[in-house]
Amino acid sequence: MRALLIAWMLLVTPAWAVQPDEILSDTVLEERARDLSKGLRCLVCRNESIDESNASLARDLRILLRERLVAGDSDQEAVDFIVERYGEYVLLNPPASGSTWLLWGAGPLMLLLAAGLGYGYLRSRSAAPAPDQTPLSPEEQARLDDILKR
């Protein structure tokens, strides 16, 4: 029973990241805030959204996002405001534009480079001359037999 309780606590921990005092009374605004915060990266936890993170900076970002929505910003305006302050790194899924083209293209470029190097290596191995396959002379065979008997 205790193991089940611990497992349950580990599974629902991200749901506890948003504190009760952060939740908006307007359920529509709260739903918008939760949806938007799932796409924003916690700057402390790296690949965790601010909706899941318990870090104090994530809490500050959640509060800032909710303040912008209460002030009347659209979803895009609220996200743009946060991106303007913290950079594109705050987006969990940044758009492929400007400086992020290198990041988006690095994976496929490395794959192509590795495939090309592997192909070149295999081609050079197949083009290499076969090793000399001449049999041992009777003297060499006798010497080898003598060494192996020791």
Automatic annotation (TrEMBL):
This is Cytochrome c-type biogenesis protein. Belongs to the CcmH/CycL/Ccl2/NrfF family. Residues 140-150 have a biased composition (Basic and acidic residues). Gene3D superfamilies: Cytochrome C biogenesis protein. It comes from Sulfitobacter marinus. Possible subunit of a heme lyase. Residues 1-17 form the signal peptide. Residues 127-150 are annotated as: Disordered.
